[in-house]
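WARN no homologs supplied; continuing
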Amino acid sequence: MESNTSLQQQLLEAGVHFGHLRKKWNPKMLPYIFAEKKGIHIIDLNKTTEALQEAAAALKQIARSGKKIMFVGTKKQAKEIVTECAKKVNMPYVTERWLGGMLTNFNTVRKSVKKMQSIDKMLGDGVAESLTKKERLTLGRDRDKMEKVLGGIAQLGRVPAALFIVDIGHEHIALAEAKRLGITTFGMVDTNCDPNKVDFAIPANDDATKSIAIITQYITAAIAEGLAERQAAKDEEAETEATDDEKEKKAARLLAEAEAEAGRGGGRTRSGSGGQQQKRRVPGGASRRPAGR
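OK structure emitted
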């Protein structure tokens, strides 16, 4: 209970409870509104804490299963925070502009990413040196433009398992694409949005930098935990496999030694009996030779 209280205190200090003006509200947010103060809706931080912990637990499980979670925040206040947090847990992110079809037309987007990577290779290998200065500049500019928009998803090989969105109203295209593909959605939802549009709605102020930071960092910490648990499980598995491998090798070695020992013993018996037979033959031969003469 104490941790909940301290989390609520942090949320309060970050201004997570400040909603929008009453005239801008979405009636579906009513269950999450605590009160109205000077024409501004105040979000119930008890509900925020519950929703945040629930979302964090679900994201932790997704990360533990090895699936990708895409961070989406193209608002000016969110860009830096979202980029930093996504990089920390090595997850894909979109902070510049959401390209229409980034999820629903993923194969085409992958082609653009590959094109960007091939330009990178050209510039890195020195192949571009054979081009004119103007062509090199154009190539460089194209690459920078692509990097800005596609840089965060360069390592994404397939459609992510989940989306974490800052301001679902602002990122409505991303949300619609995720919904169409059945991707699980998590989002910061302010009093002017419909919380039913996301699978996991976190009622919070999505305009203040501090508020965006505290929610995104909390989510990132949960993802990091999930990744750490996955790694620990992998290490344990590898250790068990190594132990089993050692046991098998030891058993095979002992078996080989036993067989070799048995082989040596058998060899002695055969040579011994052969020797005895030879000894028997020699006297017989000796008695026969004089008789022959």
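The beta strands are 18-21, 33-37, 40-43, 69-72, 93-94, 162-166, 184-189, 200-203.
OK
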